[in-house]
Amino acid sequence: MMKPVAMFSLLVILVGCADSQQNVNNSVSSEQDQVAVTEPVPVPVAPAATASSEEASVEATEVKKPWTPKTNAEWKAILTDEQFYVTREKGTERPFTNAYWDNKKQGLYRCRCCDEPLFTSETKYKSGTGWPSFYKPFNGEAVREEEDRSFFSISVRTEVLCRRCDAHLGHVFDDGPQPTGLRYCMNSASLRFEEKATEVKPAAKEAPETEQE
Hints:
Number of strands: 9
C-alpha cells in the first residue's frame, strides 16, 4: 500500500504535467493566431482593359513584318522634309493646317515610318488644339513615353514615340477626356491614315411584276 506522502508527490507531478501541457497548447494557439494576423491580405487586381471592336478587327488581320532600323540617309530618301523633321528630329508641325487635325473619317492611324498601328478613330476627339488628339493608343502598347525637357528647359513634358521605330509622334498631357483623362497630342506628319472600308450592301431585288387579269 502506497504511503500518503508518496501519493501526494505523485498527485503534484500529475497536476504539474497537465498545467505544462496546457501552457504548450496555449503557446501553439497564440503562434497560430499571430501567423494568421500577419499574413498579407490579397490586393484585388483590376481586370485588363478589353480591346475595342476596331482594335480587335485590326489585330485579327494584322501581319507583323520584321523591322530593320534605318539610317538618317535612308529616312530622308523615303520621307518628306516635314515628316523627317517631325519624326526623326523631334519637330512640331503647325496647328490647324496639318492633315488630320479635323479628320472625322473612321479608320486607323498608323506610324508614318514603320506602319505600326498607333491610334484608331474610336479614341480620337476634338481637343481644340489644332493637332489630332486621342485619349488612348492602339491596344495600350503601341507607343512608349520619355521625359522631355527641351521646351525652353522651363517645364517637363512627356514625349510619345512609336514603340517599334522610335519615331517622334508628339506629347501626352493629363487634361484629356474619360475614361483615361489623357490627351495624346500627335503630329499629322507622324501618322498615316487608313480609312475603314465601308460595307456595301447588295441592292434589294425587286419582286417580279405579276400580270393582272
